[in-house]
Design a protein that fits this description.
Quinone Oxidoreductase, Chain A, domain 1, 11 helices, about 25% helix, globular
Length: about 375
């Protein structure tokens, strides 16, 4: 058992606190990781606001990279000293999805069995996405540790643990973008900009970024967008169709439209911004009260194509993390541009404020 500093949310809406927690020695199937960096993600804020569940206190943080310090006796895939990116899809190998070969849809991903606790009163902590990495060290399932190139910058590659992977995967895995296809991304926060980067990696063109914030649209251009639309001034649906028709005669929209906001209004825009037989990918996370817009069923039928949601970018961490880190190391994927600032463990609450303001892609806690 070790005692370390960590960021905890005690109650709904209450400011987070840096406190001491107990981290057990790893048991069967578990690993203790010395955290080097952890991005501040919207999901952490959802936990703090009670938007995920009410299992307070939460140990926040999940977009992390670090070094394995110790493993349980039966762990063979990772070893002390391995540099890893943490993931929340530690596939079980036994559920229906795994047995039919769809590991990226695993229904029963592994988490650590033992609980980390508060030093002050022994209260059990609920780690965000089964990780809890706003901490000097954390206990996870060994399958949540994905080995990557140890020379990579932790603050950059750790972001693959959630938001950046979700965006890139929505374009490459869920949307199946390739050369010869067009893409539009509605919402250019961290996930949306990552989707644009994924579309660029796939060779899609044109790549159209849609947002109401000029600064976000400029960032989208830097990450690979060929066109931008300020949707506060221009209806994006006919404009996307116009841009795509310039490249592909007769196109009525984009082949793949990625909705990275998670709101009914923008989802409806994405629905109508598709070309015939186009794909809509929902990667923005809606709140539980939101409903699918009232669409004429004939439009759903008549436009064809597919309406998909993208869960974690439909990624398989063991396959996708090392590949994307290699692309980063080759200079082909600019993960550094996602790191707006590096902060300390005591600065998470302030980072939430900056997230609300939209002034950062990612604040990254460096330990």
């Amino acid at each position: 058992m070790q005692q370390v500093n960590a960021v905890v949310a005690r109650a709904k809406g209450a400011p987070v606190e840096v406190v001491q927690i107990n981290v057990p020695d790893p048991g069967p199937g578990e690993a203790v990781v010395k955290v080097q960096s952890c991005g501040v993600c919207h999901t952490d804020l959802h936990y703090r606001e009670g938007g995920i569940n009410d299992e307070f206190p939460f140990l926040l943080g999940h977009e992390a990279a670090g070094v394995v310090e110790a493993v349980g006796d039966d762990v063979t895939d990772v070893a002390p000293g391995d540099f890893v990116v943490l993931n929340w899809r530690a596939v079980c190998g036994e559920c229906r999805a795994c047995k039919r070969g769809d590991l990226k849809y695993c229904f029963a991903t592994h988490n650590a069995t033992q609980k980390m606790t508060l030093v002050e009163d022994g209260a059990e902590l609920s780690p965000a996405l089964g990780i809890g990495a706003f901490a000097e060290k954390t206990l996870v399932a060994a399958g949540q540790c994905t080995k990557v190139d140890p020379s990579a910058r932790p603050a950059a590659v750790g972001l693959l643990g959630c938001g950046v992977m979700a965006g890139i995967g929505s374009a490459i895995n869920t949307g199946a973008l390739t050369r010869g296809k067009s893409a539009a991304v509605i919402g250019c926060g961290g996930v949306g900009v990552a989707a644009i980067a994924g579309a660029a990696l796939a060779g899609a063109s044109p790549i159209i970024a849609v947002d109401i914030d000029p600064q976000k649209l400029e960032t989208a251009k830097q990450m690979g967008a060929t066109h931008t639309i300020d949707s506060s001034a221009t209806d994006p649906v006919p404009e996307i169709a116009r841009i795509c028709a310039e490249t592909y005669e007769g196109a009525e929209g984009a082949d793949v439209v990625i909705e990275a906001v998670g709101r009914p209004e923008t989802w409806q825009q994405a629905f109508y911004a598709r070309d015939l037989a186009g794909v809509l990918v929902l990667v923005g996370v809606p709140t539980p009260d939101m409903k699918v817009p009232d669409l004429p069923l004939i439009d759903v039928f008549g436009r064809g194509g597919a309406l998909k949601s993208s869960w974690y970018g439909d990624c398989l961490p063991s396959r996708d993390f090392p590949m994307l880190v290699d692309l980063y190391q080759q200079g082909r994927l600019d993960l550094d541009s996602f790191v707006t600032e590096e902060i300390g463990i005591g600065d998470v609450e302030a980072a939430f404020d900056k997230m609300h303001e939209g002034s950062v892609l990612r604040s990254v806690v460096v330990l």
